[in-house]
């Protein structure tokens, strides 16, 4: 008799975004004349850069001709892209990797979820809270998160990030085997300085903790003392795997490409204490359960690193970050406490008068016709907050700020 | 202390294709003048159909414009492709699915590997032998395959397919929880008639076995009594998940697209005997650890179903199947026992004089300058056989047959 993986049954059905959609629909039905502005989505809206479009057309044409057609590529990705990644994302920062340490993928979500395959089912987990739900859900699915006890998983350490501590996670007393860090952070939009990140690398080195570092938003960093890669910190190659994505950097959310860095130095232990390089295991995992990313997509990603590509990508990011500035100023003027938005496309707003995330969401929708994402959807410490994103249109951002000011005046 | 998943350490390093590459290189170095023809690769060589190329150019252009740009798509795939799949691959055979039963992916390899996520770690496994190594390796990685004992995994039932039984797997005495079937078969190139496949569906229904049916080569079927989908067999929706791929159908090995069918009826049990629909679990798995396939790729796949696309795809398949016929005739004329090649692009050749797979490979390379794949690389029952593929150029196929005839005369 085939048996299911019962860990899946522990997962509460995730209703956050469908609940939001339902509430918006209800509003639209009952208020057909009112135009709703959504600042809730975490998806980009600007079209792909010209250089990327040209590269894809060229690659498509190659696939039409016998001599330039490409079938199966390397599971780890084509060297033309891996070399571009190393040369552009790391060498300028004095960080050196061999090609074998970079794994091209179809987006960071796949690898942040799949990386658990190479790790033991009973490692303890640590996450900053609030956080991207995939980190926890993917661990629930393999039993690693333990059991749900009043809103928290028994084998997960939640490291609160709230206004009280300036959203800077404090080193926990207990040991953690696997720690997820996402900086610049989704959802709070806050960043960690080199000094702060160094504390975590040192914690990992002295506790033999594996850091899974999600740097999907590094392209939005403006401050010079905010590290773009965890490998800017000495010793990180021994304790960290880094996830990068072209989704928010170059508008690839619908194109699907990213990469994972698994340094040759990073290792984990067997029960007998033997050290095993994780690079070898991840390579074997990818060769067995993944068949590489589309050749056309990899050429698109390569074009992001061209001179034109870099210019065009920076323009798009500046567009979103200008939105973020407009929103931050506007929200401050309403008297709301607002965080983030300086090194990330997300703003994290504290609900006034101790309102819950959902109450704040509903008031904003019904009284200002603006959509946010209730912070509690990202974890217990998100209660009482809401996330606004800067990925929308300029005019919508400005109109939304106008409405919020009027609403809260 | 972070611990590794020690099941990975049980995996013997897979050397098959790198060993083959090394041996070919050695030959080329020592025989610089001799031109080697490779009939070993399992990858397509014809360029993409015109309809697919046009669809991709159009989709790329959409991504360049604000109003037609697409960001995140549904994790399950776009409805335009799901509808085309249902309408073209199933309705004509009288098989009906809801959109929610089809999951678009980035290729069959990912899902045949990842499907294990939703199944318990100690289900027993059954495979026909020889077989596509991913089925077994992905189960070794999560501990489901057990331990390796003289070339076989302790929790895996190997169902031998050899000339002695006409490559028709016999129903095993023991119960199997999860059974992998790949028909038309890689590597043997043989197919199962409706009658034969029905036996397995009935076995699954009476033993509560889950069948994982890999139909990646269905487009190569020529005989009318060979089912293209396991759902052509009554009752299969209750016990089978089917994997389809555009890789061999439309030359997508470098484009990456396929789909998985998880009927609403198919379920597995909890330890207490409760039935859980696998569709729900797989949907949750995909929403958590996958972010959909490239929009451009999905438009490419949609174009495969257009009138022009269908015509162009059939032409390519006929090209490969003509290669297969030429090879089958040629090999028979050499006096070798040859199987498959009638409903699949693979030919399975028995080594003469009881030669081992590797000896046969080396003789063919050194004495005829033709490359095959040693059958033993696909499992114990592959020993004494070699796989030849019909994916090469027409001229190479004919030249290779000429050489083999001369060699074995």
TrEMBL record, chains A, B:
Catalytic reaction annotation: (2S,6S)-2,6-diaminopimelate + 2-oxoglutarate = (S)-2,3,4,5-tetrahydrodipicolinate + L-glutamate + H2O + H(+)
Q: Which positions does UniProt annotate for pyridoxal 5'-phosphate binding?
A: 72, 108-109, 132, 186, 217, 245-247, 256, 291
Q: Which domain of life is it from?
A: Bacteria
Per the record, the similarity remark reads: Belongs to the class-I pyridoxal-phosphate-dependent aminotransferase family. LL-diaminopimelate aminotransferase subfamily.
Q: Which HAMAP family match?
A: DapL_aminotrans_1
Q: What is this protein called?
A: LL-diaminopimelate aminotransferase
Subunit structure and binding partners: Homodimer.
| Stored SUPFAM superfamilies | PLP-dependent transferases
* Binding site residues for substrate: 15, 42, 109, 132, 186, 291, 387
Gene Ontology terms describing biological process: lysine biosynthetic process via diaminopimelate, diaminopimelate-aminotransferase pathway
| Taxonomic path | Bacteria, Pseudomonadati, Bacteroidota, Bacteroidia, Bacteroidales
Whether Transferase counts among this entry's keywords is yes
């Amino acid at each position: 008799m085939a048996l299911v993986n019962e860990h899946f049954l522990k997962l509460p059905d995730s209703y956050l975004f469908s609940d939001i959609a339902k509430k918006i629909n209800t509003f639209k039905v009952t208020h057909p004349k009112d135009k709703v502005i959504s600042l809730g989505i975490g998806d980009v809206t600007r079209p792909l850069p010209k250089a990327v479009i040209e590269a894809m057309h060229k690659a498509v044409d190659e696939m039409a001709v016998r001599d330039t057609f490409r079938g199966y590529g390397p599971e780890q990705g084509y060297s033309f892209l891996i070399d571009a990644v190393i040369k552009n994302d790391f060498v300028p920062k004095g960080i050196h990797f061999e090609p074998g340490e970079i794994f091209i993928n179809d987006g960071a979500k796949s690898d942040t979820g799949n990386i658990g395959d190479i790790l033991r089912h009973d490692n303890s987990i640590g996450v900053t809270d609030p956080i991207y739900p995939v980190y926890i859900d993917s661990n629930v699915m393999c039993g690693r998160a333990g059991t749900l006890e009043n809103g928290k998983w028994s084998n997960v350490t939640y490291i609160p990030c709230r206004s009280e501590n300036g959203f800077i996670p404090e080193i926990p007393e207990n040991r953690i085997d696997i720690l997820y860090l996402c900086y610049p952070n989704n959802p709070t939009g806050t960043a960690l300085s080199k000094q702060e990140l160094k504390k975590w690398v040192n914690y990992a080195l002295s506790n033999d903790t594996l850091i899974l570092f999600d740097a999907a938003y590094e392209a939005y960093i403006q401050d010079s003392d905010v590290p773009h890669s965890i490998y800017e910190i000495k010793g990180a190659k021994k304790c960290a795997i880094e996830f990068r994505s072209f989704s928010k950097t170059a508008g690839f959310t619908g194109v699907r490409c990213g990469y994972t860095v698994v340094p040759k130095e990073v290792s984990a232990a067997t029960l007998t204490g033997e050290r095993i390089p994780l690079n070898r295991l991840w390579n074997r995992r990818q060769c067995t359960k993944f068949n590489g990313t589309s050749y056309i997509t990899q050429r698109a990603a390569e074009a992001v690193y061209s001179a034109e590509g870099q210019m065009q990508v920076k323009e798009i990011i500046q567009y979103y970050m200008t939105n973020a500035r407009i929103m931050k100023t506007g929200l401050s003027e309403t008297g709301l406490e607002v965080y983030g938005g300086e090194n990330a496309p997300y703003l994290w707003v504290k609900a006034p008068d101790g309102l819950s995330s959902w109450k704040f969401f509903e008031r904003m929708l019904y009284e200002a016709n603006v959509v946010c994402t209730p912070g509690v959807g990202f974890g217990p410490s998100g209660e009482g907050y809401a996330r606004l994103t800067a990925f929308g249109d300029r005019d919508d951002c400005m109109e939304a700020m106008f409405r919020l000011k009027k609403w809260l005046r």
